[in-house]
Queue: 4 jobs
Job 1
Amino acid sequence: MVILDGKKTSNDLKDEIAIAVAKRRSEGKKIPHLAAILVGTDGASMTYVNSKVKSCEKVGFNSTLIDLPEDTTEDQLLNEIDDLNKDNDIDGFIVQLPLPKQIDEQKVLMAVDPNKDVDGFHPVNVGKMTLDLPTFLPATPYGIMELLKRYKVETSGKNVVVIGRSHIVGRPMSILLSQKRDVGNATVTLVHSRTKNLEEITKEADIIVAALGKAEFLTGDMVKDGVTIIDVGITRVKDDSKKRGYRLAGDVDFESVSKKAGFITPVPGGVGPMTIAMLLKNTLLACENRD
Ligand code: GUN
């Protein structure tokens, strides 16, 4: 069993990005600048956004964190987005999800300038991705593809089962892995909460991407020997034995599944760090696009 080490791989990627930034600096070119908007005080979102900003510093990017209160109105948020769209120094920005209930997420995502949409969530960019045109790929699926590529996990002709149909992970992952591309050419099945006989389907999978958001959902009896497991889940589970009162659990029961897996991502230290690295890569790309 080989651990797909997202922490190490993301550090390799960050080193590569830092070299590209240093080169830009020496050539007198613009330094990439990423902004992140966080609305409210959701613990997990705050952790993610802070770690995105910290990673910017690590590779030499400029970064801006816009922290808005929980009761921010939709209009106020749309105004902030408009300012970032117009700000010539900002190459790319993200609005951390989920948003408070008074704000229409779709309206917000559509307000982002597609050229600065480094999350790849704007319908124009989703459309381009679907048509296999150059665009910003959503960071989590992009990170998974990079991990599979760097560990030379064969995807061509393989049975891939994606569990979960979210707009951020499951849906784009299923599209990308079925495309005619380097990490792709797979036979993809997307399963979800209405799927019947889920176990029969996962047992036939060569690669499983678990992205449903249910702690330790996938167990050893649901997979075949040699399977490659990508665990996207990261749920806080109450655990009084921990100082912070919780532990982080993936969508995969690592204990039983790792006994059968050929390759497996850990939680934490698997997909999570890759997502951040790919966001940085998209920001570098956004900056280069403006040269
Ligand atoms: N919330 C969970 N994942 C993501 C992500 O990749 N981008 C943003 N903006 N919000 C998220």
Job 2
Amino acid sequence: MNSKTTRFAPSPTGRLHVGNIRTALHNWMLARKSGGSFILRIDDTDAARSKEEYVEAIRADLAWLGIEADREERQSERLDAYEAAFQRLREAGRIYPAYETQQELELKRKVQLGRGLPPIYDRGALNLTEEQRAAKEAEGIAPHWRFKLDHDEKIAWEDGVRGHQKFDPAQLSDPVIRRADGSWLYMLPSTVDDVDMGVTQVLRGEDHVSNTAVQIQMFTAMGAAPPAFAHEALLVGKEGKLSKRLGSLGCDAFRERGIEPEAIIALLARLGTSLPVEPIADREDLLETFDLSTFGRAPAKFDDAELERVNTAIVHAMPYDAVKHRLPAGMDEAGWHAVQPNISTIGEVGEWWRLVTGPIEQPEFSDEDRAYLAQAAEALAWGDDPWGALTTALKDSTGRKGKALFLPLRQALTGMNQGPDMGELLPLIGESEALARLERARG
Ligand code: GLU
């Protein structure tokens, strides 16, 4: 496979949400898989809405997810390049000034819709005479700028997800690319960047399909070959509807819920593809099967319960070395191994580890159980497998079995009715502490 240059191009007007994360991940995977390069491009031409704190949050979120960019670019530092492209395209007759106000445009739309016509810009500004234009300028109306689509140049591309796509340019409005105050809209800067940065593959949401149609003509007008395009289906809630909640669900919320980045990655790498979602923590394994041809056109359904299942499975398979720096002080590999099957997030480790370190709170025992626990205190012997030895001895001496044999011991030793395997826990509690707990329980 040829090496690909991809980019993820968020606007720093808010935090990343799960839909953005998915797009970032897929672009990262496309680049990694091909041995290419992945660019983080900050689309911050909208000075009023862009905030530095969001730029920082985007970087931090991507770092937490392990989606590292090979390069970072910022649109606000590239205004000269946009200006140059603008002048070139204007000289080539592909950009023209327009003077309609927002209200005039609205009115035109309404009239068209009222007549059952598609609301395509009528190119009124192109038909102005020099005098009419001069009159507008004399009135102090500064123009905004539109890119002139070539109606004779049919637009078509092979989309990496959607297959063959074609658009009739006559059915599209000439897009506004620059506001009257000189500021840029998304369309032209993005195209200039994709050319200058050598982007070979654009992968983004299907809400950009009609932008792609327009941008393909921009690439051509700039004398550049368009990159390959792929548009992935949108992410929806599990009910199948676009969900407002998903639009605000981001890394902070995941972190608070104890979701591991690897669980998010494993889910989002496969969601909406024909491959099964599996708790794969190794990115190399995910990369191996990653392929745009497995992507479906139906909306990808995001289900919290599925994310939690993947997370739990990933936590259950996590090696000690990968978590040791996040465990409570004093908790060693045996401790991790004992509690690992009982947790669904790393945050739950502490609750179980407290059973080892204490203090614990024992329930009220019946007289009968107190007598039994007294026997247990006497039978406690330390060796390789103190729990096995203790329960075998008590089974023989008391005739107890099942719950009657095990539950009072668990309650006395941990204060709980259930929890990690006692065979693993008891050696961690240690001989003297275990004896003290049994003595306390016998009363
Ligand atoms: N800033 C644009 C967005 O967030 C980027 C779209 C693109 O990938 O070209 O929608």
Job 3
Amino acid sequence: MALIVQKFGGSSLGTLDRIQHVASKVMATRAQGHDVVVVVSAMFGETDRLIRLANAITHLPDPREYDVLISTGEQVSMSLLSIALNAKNCDARSFTGPQIGIQTDDVHTKARIQEVKTDVLQRELKQGRVVIVAGFQGVNEAGEVTTLGRGGSDTTAVAIAIALKADECQIYTDVDGVYTTDPHLLSDAMMIPHISFEEMLEMASMGAKVLQMRSVELASRHNMPIRVLSTFIDGPGTLVTFEEKIMQRRLVTGIAFSREEAIISLSGISRRIGLEGLILDRISQEAVEIDMIAQNATAQDTVDFTFTVPRREYAKAIKIIEGLNKDLGSFAIKTNDKVAKVSLVGVGMKSHAGVASTMFKALGETGIGIQMVTTSEIKISVIVDETLVEQAVKAVHQAFELHKIPSPKQEQLVE
Ligand code: ASP
Ligand code: MG
């Protein structure tokens, strides 16, 4: 007998029919002899509706009241699910985050969980009940309701799984797993059966639609396996675990991309110690996030410095850079705010050379120019023209045969 935490998202709880369906899925797990804690999101669209109500009164609602308001969506779905289970003769009880004792810090609207009390959970499980917990909410030291940021029910589920030392944390959603790339962009995309925490975090642009990234970080820190599954289609889903547990590994796992990037290049800055720190310091003082950075010294004793920022912060970044002229002397600025980032992700590349060359060759043969490159142990990112994203993803997906089920030969590649 295992202890399983199952989290159901808003689309899985969108209607009473769907809530009934979730109830029968929970009962099927119970029937296999497992203990189950269920974490629920609000019914589909409900949190957005509540936010609109508050914003219709004022654009700056008091954060305390705002959290009281937006935490109610989960209370509706938790009790409806419990009513549905009880009506099917399955003993269940629902609890809010504060009732369970999900203790958070004070940061209203994006609080962090500090501790999950287990006494109520244990007591209810011991009684043989299904315990249903409202996701996305907790209570601070002063006893005020807090919420955990959009998508926060995933984090509630992982935190409860860790506190109870559950065997697995299952996240039920409306897709059947995590894909090698966005299946809306590329119909060849394949479901990934097994992915490491590290890769999942790097696949953020893909994965964030499925899991709140904070929940992956938390699971990774405590080694809690997460399984992403569909509520509507039966299947094994995608298991997110530590790398060592992944038996059939590929050289690369997936391709993430983001379209909303801008690149800024400063050239001909006269060389001096501390220059890079000065540039980055100014930019980060204005809370502009910098992503990729490349710097190189030229033969003329000057430095070229190139970086990318999210497109929405482009105008702000340019203004800061123009202000740097005073400190750095004259330099040329070249920019392009119509670029995208394509990232190849895979723990398999740690121990294998030639991944970058295969990727660059595939892009080159497709006639795609690379404007910037950065690499880490498990990721190679390139900046390309925004209009070429689809072609770039397609070419790289094809080059690494991500559309095929891994063959034994490919598995051997990464021993
Ligand atoms: N209901 C909340 C939201 O819409 C939390 C969640 O769904 O995880 O963001
Ligand atoms: Mg979600």
Job 4
Amino acid sequence: MNNLQKVPSVALIIGSSGQLGSELASALLKERPDQTLICSDLHQGTAPDGALFEALDVLNKPRLEDMIKRYGIQEIYHLAAMLSAKGEQKPEMAWRLNMEGLLNVLDLSVKHGVGRVFWPSSIAAFGPGTPRDLVPQWPVMDPRTVYGISKLSGELWCQYYFQRFGLDVRSLRYPGIISWRTPPGGGTTDYAVEIFHEALRTGAYTSFLQAHTRLPMMFIDDAVRATLELMRADGERLSVRTSYNITAMSFTPSELAEAIQSRLPDFQIDYCADFRQAIADTWPAVIDDQVARLDWGWHHRYDLNALVDEMLTNLAAASVNP
Ligand code: SER
């Protein structure tokens, strides 16, 4: 089977206006230009050329069912969620969106024979009982945020649907994702995106995490490629049906600032930790993703220096040619 034959011809992205969804849509079209790709998000939005857009609230199960039937959806990327920091401000809504949304997708996928589902988990599924360094694939997981609890529960639901109903659902525990086209919304790792915008705009940034808070991170191109590689991997090789550990690098706000200063020497950083510090303090610093590397050949391409170069170059170009 060549690569094109592995790519289904009708796919749906739920949460396509978000940080990951917007870039995944372009990558999916590049992978298979003749596919029918439906992008959807809560509010009316845009899709890249060659894709369709439909507004969809994933909590509206009848509407989701209508779309799956109407288009004959073969593959779903369910990315709509409320992230860690925002979720702590609206815990009930976060639980409902993150859990009920996933269960709607899983249930309708079984009912209508959707061939494959992708759903992201996160480093937020770990907690203070998890080792901080080199977190193995199967550690203690005791998340302390609503977002993290929903991710851990969701992982177990994914495994349950795979084992009980044979639904081919696949998942990655993303670290903080850093991108320049679309901002993240409401996460604890968002500082690592904001810092680049402010470095170029004002030359200074106040970090809401302390200088030495080390967290796992990944450049968006690696995150998108990991998603597609996992989705195209031979199912027989996948030993994990909860969610795969995956990482590219780990750094602190002060190390990121130094890397920026080596390119923009006048850049200034200071620190004023807020409630997000307490969230970050429960997350691990370094992830061990060797199971993903062994099972389906994961390898990252962007380290800290490559990430900083990409972010500064692309954001500077985007401000000249918005
Ligand atoms: N980036 C996410 C957050 O900070 C972690 O998955 O909430």
